[in-house]
Structures are given as structure tokens and as C-alpha cells.
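stage 2 :: seqdesign
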């Protein structure tokens, strides 16, 4: 099992352009592959294109709760793993998960392991696999849950005590000889592929794999092939070809069929991406009364803070001064965020002499989460305000082709799963709001209550704010400056009349200046 993540950094965009089309298939399709492709192609297009995306929901639906699931089956040694890796490479999607049947063999008893060492145990029958566990794992990933995938040792012929944790998947590829065997899996798949390769080639590949990679003896590999592998192929595996949307003869060598398949999958993912962006835009069209919201705090327009804003927004401010004054504004944001804490115990504190002070002790524990790299600008203030605070990080970047936000990395402290924790989420700038929405969804998936999330940002557009609030009613926000969607609109918090389209609100620059990477 491989969890494949690709780091693609791109500027924030808010468009709905599709993926760039794949190269057109080359000429020279031979008669065998042409016949099978012609037979299967119409079924592929009609079956996959007819699947509709879920209807618009009033709340946010993250991409990883609707992953695109692909099943890749074929005989042992047919090249299905290579085809799966080719799909991963060509799709170039972050959070692509490859679930291999190799990790879902049933644990063996001591007697069965002795048989396995003597090449006398049948690993190629459906009963040798824990299909129930595989189905549960796919369902869990499909629902956007953190999922534990088992790890199997072919050296020990047993499942190990280790597991691989997967959270979030845009694409799930299920690869194995019985990938198209179980109806429960078939019902969850968006595309089904069968890799059809000559049995002599399959045997040669299996010999190479088992002898070189798994350190097996030649006579044992041949014995296992003749006794178990080949008979089960004829009895079970070959029949699953009828469940395939696309049959690929000759495996990885059939570049024409693979290009056709990848192009279609790219189109389906592009449609899914466009629907996600459309949903985010619709959230921004809903009205919001910022002035009367108790969940939104904007720093007051005092002379002191206006002076700090003047230095931060001036293009001629030296970087050392920019860092100094941003730390000042982030301290104010932190202090304002702490005002959302409501649980305190009364304590009596002794002072010098005989007097005692009737004070308070904070009960709620705070966890900080930064959206890399923008949120890292708040690190100095976080550590000064709450020295022992636990800190987590999220890497969310926009796809360079579609502008869709994509979660690349999440590293959160274990304590965040405690529902009583209050989480301060930091992002120096909110432009489209998409990254913050995705970050909040991650926290919710980890069990954080929406009302216990405080999003802290220096600059925010009104469109971004609207999307966040309507996606997650009850989330708290602390902002240094807020612009407006409409031209000429002025409020107490925006006496300057900043618009969402103004350069300082529509371009990320704070983290570049703060860390000196512009």
C-alpha cells in the first residue's frame, strides 16, 4: 500500500479552468487491442460519464469525502501494479492512495505458516484475503475518516503489528487480482480496469519478483504457480474481466489504451474540481452582517493600530521593521482571540503584605495550528502568549491548473482530538477563503468542535470571510483588517474603503516579506 502525495506550489487563484488535456493517443493500435478497446470504450464512457456528482449542500463538502475510486485487476504478474503507478504519475494528484490487496491477506495460524514456507498454502483464492477489512477501509476513506491500513510481511507470512494511517484521499486506486471480484467494492468504484497479459509473461514476471524480491526458491515458485496460482486465475480471476469498464491488453506496453483511460479520468476529476470551486463561490454570495456578528472580531481603528497598519502596508518599509510591526499586530490579534475563551476558575492570589487578589485561572487549553507558510508569521506571538502551547501544521496549496485548494500535508498534535480543546488557526491572509475552509474541515474531521475554532488572520477579503462563515456557522474569527466586496463601500472597520480587488488584499505578500523570500 502506498500513499502518494505530490507537493505542487502555486499562487492563489479562483478560476474554474480544467486540467490540461493529456496528449492524444498515438497511432498504430494493433487489431487485438483495437477490438477490445472498441468493445469496452462505449461502455466506459457511458458508465462513467453518467455518474453524477452530489447535489449542492448548504454546508461545505471537502473533496476527500468524494474521492474518485479506481479498481485495477488482472492476473498475477499481469502488470497491474505498473499500470496503477502510471495512473498515479500521469494524474499528478495530491493525496492519491494506492490500496494493494497484498496488505489484506488474512493472518495465518502457525500450521498455515509452515504450509506457506513449503509453498503449500493457497494465497490465490478469495478466502485467503480479508475482503471485509478492505471494504471497511475503502468506506472509511470514502467518508473522509482517518483510516488504519494493515501491513503484511511476505517474509514472515503474516500480518505485522504495524499499520499505515491514511487521512484524506482525492483518488483511491484499489489494485489486486480480486479488485473486481467483490460487489461491495465494485459498487464504490468510479472506474474499473482489467490488465490482460499472456500467462507466459505473467509467469516470467512472477518468477523474477518472488526469487529476487521475496527470496523464494525456484522450485517453490513453480510449484505454487502450478498448484494454486494458475488454477485460481482460470476459476476466479479471468471471469472478473466482465466487470471491467476498460480492458488493457499487454499491460504497461499498451500506451494507447492507457492514454485513453488517463484522459477520461482527468476529465472526470476536472468536473469534480469545477463543482467544488463552484460550491465555494456560491458560499460567497450569501449575505453577512459583519457588524452584528458576535463571532467576528476586527481590531479597532485606533490611532496606534492605524500607525502600525501604515508601516505594514507601505511598500518602502524595510523587512526588519516589517517583522517588528507585524509581531505587534499579531500580539493584538492573539489578545483578541483569547477573549473568546469563556471558562475560568476564581482563584485567590497572595500579594505583598497581607492583601490578596481575587483573580481568575484559565480552564480551557489552547492548541495552535498554522497554515504553512502564512500562519508561521504568528509563531513569535503564539509562544509569547502561551509558552507551552502545542502546535500543529497544515500545508494547503492551490492546484496550478484549476486553482482548487489541495491538502498536501497535515501534522497535528494528538491532543487536538480532545473535544474540549480550543484551536487557534492561523493564516496571515484570507483571499478566496478556500484554504481556511479546507483547514477548518480537517480540524472538524479530527473531532474539533466548530465553536471551539478561532481563525486568526491579519488581512481578509469580505468574499473569503463570507465563504468561511457560511461553510462553518459558529466558527470564530479575529481579523486585523477587512476589505469589502463592493466599490466605495465604507464601514467603521474599513474607513479606508479597501476593496477585495485591491492589490494588498488579492495578493499574498506577508509571509514573503516576513521570511524574506520575495
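stage 2 :: out
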Amino acid at each position: 500500500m502506498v500513499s502518494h502525495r505530490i507537493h505542487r506550489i502555486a499562487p492563489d487563484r479562483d478560476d474554474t479552468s480544467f486540467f490540461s488535456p493529456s496528449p492524444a493517443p498515438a497511432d498504430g493500435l494493433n487489431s487485438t487491442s483495437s477490438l477490445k478497446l472498441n468493445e469496452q470504450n462505449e461502455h466506459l464512457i457511458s458508465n462513467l460519464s453518467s455518474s453524477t456528482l452530489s447535489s449542492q449542500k448548504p454546508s461545505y463538502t471537502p473533496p476527500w469525502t468524494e474521492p474518485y475510486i479506481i479498481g485495477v485487476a488482472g492476473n498475477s504478474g499481469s502488470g497491474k501494479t505498473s499500470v496503477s503507478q502510471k495512473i498515479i504519475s500521469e494524474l499528478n494528484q495530491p493525496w492519491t492512495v494506492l490500496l494493494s490487496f497484498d496488505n489484506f491477506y488474512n493472518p495465518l495460524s502457525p500450521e498455515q505458516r509452515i504450509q506457506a514456507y513449503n509453498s503449500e498454502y493457497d494465497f490465490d483464492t478469495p478466502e485467503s484475503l480479508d475482503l471485509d477489512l478492505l471494504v471497511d477501509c475503502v468506506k472509511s476513506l470514502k467518508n473522509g475518516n482517518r483510516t488504519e491500513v494493515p501491513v503484511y510481511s511476505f517474509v514472515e507470512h503474516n500480518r505485522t503489528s504495524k499499520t499505515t494511517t491514511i487521512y484524506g484521499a482525492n483518488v483511491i486506486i484499489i489494485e489486486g487480482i480480486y479488485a473486481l471480484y467483490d460487489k461491495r467494492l465494485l459498487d464504490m468504484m468510479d472506474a474499473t480496469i482489467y490488465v490482460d497479459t499472456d500467462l507466459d509473461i505473467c509467469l516470467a514476471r512472477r518468477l523474477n519478483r518472488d526469487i529476487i524480491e521475496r527470496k523464494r526458491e525456484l522450485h517453490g515458485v513453480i510449484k505454487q504457480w502450478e498448484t494454486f496460482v494458475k488454477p485460481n486465475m482460470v476459476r476466479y480471476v479471468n471471469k472478473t474481466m466482465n466487470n471491467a469498464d476498460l480492458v488493457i491488453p499487454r499491460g504497461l506496453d499498451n500506451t494507447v489504451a492507457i492514454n485513453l483511460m488517463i484522459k477520461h479520468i482527468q476529465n472526470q476529476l476536472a468536473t469534480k474540481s469545477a463543482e467544488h470551486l463552484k460550491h465555494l463561490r456560491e458560499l460567497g454570495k450569501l449575505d453577512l452582517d459583519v457588524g452584528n456578528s458576535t463571532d467576528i472580531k476586527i481590531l479597532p481603528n485606533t490611532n496606534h493600530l492605524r500607525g502600525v497598519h501604515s508601516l505594514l502596508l507601505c511598500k518602502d518599509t524595510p523587512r526588519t521593521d516589517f517583522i517588528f510591526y507585524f509581531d505587534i499586530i499579531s500580539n493584538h490579534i492573539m489578545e483578541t482571540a483569547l477573549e473568546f475563551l469563556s471558562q475560568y476558575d476564581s482563584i485567590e492570589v497572595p500579594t505583598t503584605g497581607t492583601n490578596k487578589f481575587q483573580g481568575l485561572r484559565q480552564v480551557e487549553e489552547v492548541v495552535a495550528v498554522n497554515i504553512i507558510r502564512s500562519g508561521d508569521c504568528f509563531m513569535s506571538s503564539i509562544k509569547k502568549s502561551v509558552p507551552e502551547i502545542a502546535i500543529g501544521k497544515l500545508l494547503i496549496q492551490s492546484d496550478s491548473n484549476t486553482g482548487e485548494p489541495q491538502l498536501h500535508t497535515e501534522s497535528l498534535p494528538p491532543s487536538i482530538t480532545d473535544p474540549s480543546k480550543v484551536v487557534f488557526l492561523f493564516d496571515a491572509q484570507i483571499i478566496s477563503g478556500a484554504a481556511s475552509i479546507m483547514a477548518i474541515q480537517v480540524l472538524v474531521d479530527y473531532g474539533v468542535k466548530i465553536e471551539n475554532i478561532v481563525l486568526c488572520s491579519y488581512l481578509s477579503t469580505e468574499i473569503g470571510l463570507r465563504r468561511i462563515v457560511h461553510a462553518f456557522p459558529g466558527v470564530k474569527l479575529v481579523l486585523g483588517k477587512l476589505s469589502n466586496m463592493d466599490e466605495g463601500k465604507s464601514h467603521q472597520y474599513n474607513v479606508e474603503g479597501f476593496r477585495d480587488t485591491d492589490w494588498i488584499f488579492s495578493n499574498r505578500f506577508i509571509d514573503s516579506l516576513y521570511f524574506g523570500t520575495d
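stage 3 :: structure notes
- The chain has two domains: 62-281, 287-515.
- Residues 370 and 379 are 9 Å apart (CA to CA).
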